[in-house]
Write a structure and sequence with these properties.
homodimer; alpha+beta; Arc Repressor Mutant, subunit A; Beta-Lactamase; three-stranded antiparallel β-sheet; IclR family transcriptional regulator (chains A, B); WH_DNA-bd_sf (chains A, B)
Chain lengths: 246, 246
Amino acid sequence: MARSPDGESVITRAVRILDAFGPESTVLSLSELGRRARLPLATTARLVKEMTRHGLLDRDEHRQVLIGTRMWELAERASPVRDLRETALPYMGDLHAVVGHSTQLGVLDSGEVLFVERLTASGSVVNVTRIAGRLPLHASSAGLVLLAHASDGLRERVLAARPAAYTRHTLAEGQALRTELAGIRRRGFAFCPGHIHPDATGIAVPVRRSGRVVAAMGLVVPNDDDAWTFSRPLVLAGLALSRALG
Amino acid sequence: MARSPDGESVITRAVRILDAFGPESTVLSLSELGRRARLPLATTARLVKEMTRHGLLDRDEHRQVLIGTRMWELAERASPVRDLRETALPYMGDLHAVVGHSTQLGVLDSGEVLFVERLTASGSVVNVTRIAGRLPLHASSAGLVLLAHASDGLRERVLAARPAAYTRHTLAEGQALRTELAGIRRRGFAFCPGHIHPDATGIAVPVRRSGRVVAAMGLVVPNDDDAWTFSRPLVLAGLALSRALG
């Protein structure tokens, strides 16, 4: 692999450049991009030029840099989550239409929940999830469902890592988490009132393919006395999606 | 930029590797990947190792190579089409629920229509579009809508390129295309019975942001006497989405 004078490969530097972009920073100046990627300006300019030539990056009318449509196309058309997303979307759409609250789909990736799809309702309750965003497994309802069905090894690593609390309701203590995970497996869904934000309740169900849990589908609804009633349509939608996945 | 002995950059070779994957070839052996990317096996192995280390690629349980979840995450979370897709999805979901046929969203990219979202109905009519798939502008209803609202320069280039016919109904002749594009601008939608496949009718409407056409939303319905009736809900959904985009 070709390397820079300090031994870093071109691929490493290209990934650092791509990683500088995020949901809140979709358009960056060359200097801001270099600063975030921790690369000299000349190196940044050279790499951006090369990556733009291939459509991995793009320049807008003010010469600011953004992720290229071609980068999205290369990642998406053979994406490992494409099938899951495409099968799930109609079920998520139905659920969203029936309950009128944000609906999301998350998968386990590198010890976190990675959200691969989300449908939002305008004016809905606060929801910290984003498409291609991540949350810790212990904090979110989708994460708890994935953790409840994960390997013993991963479960013990999460429990040993002393997970952080978002609110006073976050399950951040080992025994409470263990009890909740057993409850999720028994009950068939995770119910998390105020675990991430006091105003919101997360609810999530497992999504199975050939019997194995491959994702979690969730709702974010207001944290009130009615929140519990949304578990029924969510469980039904989860069963329907699992059936469609086979 | 670091270059191989034949002067090709690492980025160029990495893009060739990513480009070897597609909707029909999401999992490749190392040798098949090298063959498709037109790279020596040793170069392919070295690049795959490096790209896998960064999560751009992944290896499955049989050591076959696939696009990595991290690649998808880097492309998606700051994607230039993310906002459009996320705003469009609930409207597409409503439309899909009401009409019960495949619903898709396409944008103009490099003189083609690139489909950024699709909702499919099981058992629906034949539909050649795919998420992150492309179609020529003249052949698809979404492409015709985008072409009808594109610059004069692009329109003349497409007309000059002697577009290919998929069926005997494809508009592959200059004057017929010009007449149709004017009709689409006047009527507000494209109606394409049997243009791509004899059994399917594509219908598409423009999606506007600040008055400018930024995408086309379409339906694929059976090619029969009722096809025309689907234009009404589609036009309504297009207006609603354009209003939401502002």
